[in-house]
Amino acid sequence: MIKKAVIPIGGEATRLRPLTIETSKGLVRLLNKPILEHSILSLARDGVEEVYLGVRGYVNYTTLFDYFREGYWLKKKYGLEKEVRIRYMPRYESTTNGDAVWYTMRYYDIKEPVVVIQGDNIYQLSLREMYEWHRKKNAFMTIALQPVNDVTGFGVAKIDDDHRIEYFVEKPKPEEAPSNLANTGIYILSENFWEFLEEDWAKEMKENRRLDFGGDIIPALIEHGYDVYGYPMSGYWFDIGTPDRYLNAAMYLLHHLSPEDMEAVEITHDVYMQGKSEMSEDLRKRIRDMIKRGEVLIEGKALLGRHISIGKGTVLEDAIIDNYSMIGENCEILHSVIMDRAKLGNNVRIINSIVGRHVEIGDNVRIVNSVIGDNAVISDNVRMYNVKIWPHEFVENGASLENYTVRHTAPKR
Ligand SMILES: CC(=O)N[C@H]1[C@@H](OP(=O)(O)OP(=O)(O)OC[C@H]2O[C@@H](n3ccc(=O)[nH]c3=O)[C@H](O)[C@@H]2O)O[C@H](CO)[C@@H](O)[C@@H]1O
């Protein structure tokens, strides 16, 4: 079995701003916990015992380290059979995702097959099955491939009847893509993987550290006859690179995961609520009663975190509300995510939007197709359409914003 996973997570995640200004994208909360916690948990359940994070830069490293630390707490939290240990790439300015994997494996002297996953992806895959496939094909590298409707932003592979990859191109124009099979960024690398760098043709790549998996390594390996195989993924897979993709993934998971997978119980039809303590049990009863009395209306599905409150007359439709959030009266939250400790006044309407952590929103506010960064303050009577607000920003009473980014520097609270 595969015991080690390497996760390059040092990219800047600019497309997911403002959610990633002060935090690594691996820590952006999805279904009320960091994105990366989902992946690490799935790896650990598949037998992985060591996870190496290819961190880069101050914010990326400190936020990840301070949250995950050595990872030993995961065993208790999730009742895992074994501990999962988390280690970090030492300080090194990686140039590309492959460079981060290469350096991490060299530093920790890893000489066994590893699985590589991307830090901003969420997926459902049996690593055991993928590894069996890898061994059966006697592959040098196996890439999990997923058919997609839109290949924009992905590497695309063309495979033969045996699933051997004949051709790979990184982020082609959609009309030039050789197939609809996207590179999910989930790879199994054989134990001798990096030996290809000793080949004459690879010298330049190595010297110039041109080690991008999609842009450099995979196409070069294929060109030089290495056995690179595609593995057809059957479960879901989402790249959470942009706010739209984040919301799509969140809504898909809300509709498809079991309550257990969301660490929740179904308190009434299609409403899931988290928390295990007696207090959580009491709160569940209270919210269930409000729903029964018609004081809170739920359409579609909803996931509710711990220690939340919801005012009378509020409607939730495909909404995810994270821990400690307070929603006022007569609000409407539609196809949106409210992260932890946010506070919404009365008569707030949020549609197709992401509200960051510890955000404060006044009364009579409308927010549509927007992303509000952590700890921002939105005053009363604000209207927003297609807006991004950077963390800690303040939007004044009555402001009406459209297709706009609020990012001037304001004093931090
Ligand atoms: C070049 C490459 O492999 N592209 C793949 C990558 O695209 P994508 O555009 O995500 O590729 P990036 O290189 O930007 O990011 C990949 C991962 O590497 C990390 N990172 C990046 C640079 C760096 O110096 N250090 C580092 O750790 C990023 O945080 C990220 O987790 O994933 C997609 C699936 O999601 C695939 O379809 C693409 O084929």
TrEMBL record:
Keyword rRNA-binding assigned to the entry: answer is no
Q: Please state every residue range assigned to the domain named Mannose-1-phosphate guanyltransferase C-terminal.
A: 299-397
**What are the UniProt keywords, alphabetically?**
Transferase
Tell me yes or no: is Ribosomal protein among this UniProt entry's keywords: no
Return the Pfam families for the record: GMPPB_C (PF25087), NTP_transferase (PF00483)
Q: Which domain of life is it from?
A: Archaea
Task: Extract one GO molecular function annotation from the record.
Answer: transferase activity
Instruction: Outline the extent of the Nucleotidyl transferase domain.
Output: 4-254
Q: Which CDD domains match?
A: LbH_G1P_AT_C_like (cd03356), NTP_transferase (cd04181)
Q: Which InterPro entries does this UniProt record tie to the protein? A: GMPPB_C (IPR056729), Mannose-1P_guanyltransferase (IPR050486), NTP_transferase_dom (IPR005835), Nucleotide-diphossugar_trans (IPR029044), Trimer_LpxA-like_sf (IPR011004)
**Family per record:** Belongs to the transferase hexapeptide repeat family.
PANTHER family annotated for this entry?
SUGAR-1-PHOSPHATE GUANYL TRANSFERASE
Query: This protein is called what?
Result: Bifunctional protein GlmU
Organism name = Thermococcus eurythermalis
